[in-house]
Write a structure and sequence with these properties.
alpha/beta; Transcription Regulator spoIIAA; 6-stranded mixed beta sheet
Length: about 120
């Protein structure tokens, strides 16, 4: 499935990314580029939310993209929150232990509300 990526700025200092489809070695570079744009600014972005509800598959390239963004946001004093993907896809987070490392939320509202 072809990956699609929607980008919103629901309020100042917040970026919301909504990829859909497969997040794999072929499509992860697009998400990585958007995450770099969001996190390589002058510190004006305090929160990046990646809503994975529309993801149908994720591989190590997709997971690595999220881990890299998590590290960059922490280094800049910001936060990365991830809205949990569908159950089958979220299994990859559990198997790798990333569910204990990344800030996973049950829905977009929860991810945007916690500051």
């Amino acid at each position: 499935m072809h990956e699609r990526l929607d980008v919103d700025r629901p309020e100042p200092g917040v970026v919301l990314l909504r990829p859909s489809g497969d997040l794999d070695a072929y499509t992860a570079p697009g998400l990585r580029a958007e995450l770099h744009r969001a996190t390589d600014g002058n510190g004006d972005v305090a929160l990046v939310v990646v809503d994975l509800k529309g993801i149908t598959f994720i591989d190590s390239a997709g997971l690595g993209t999220l881990v890299g963004a998590h590290r960059r946001m922490r280094e800049s004093g910001g936060r990365l929150r991830i809205v949990r993907p569908p159950t089958l896809v979220s299994r990859a987070f559990e198997l790798t232990g990333l569910d204990e490392v990344l800030d996973l939320c049950d829905d977009r509202e929860q991810a945007l509300a916690r500051r």
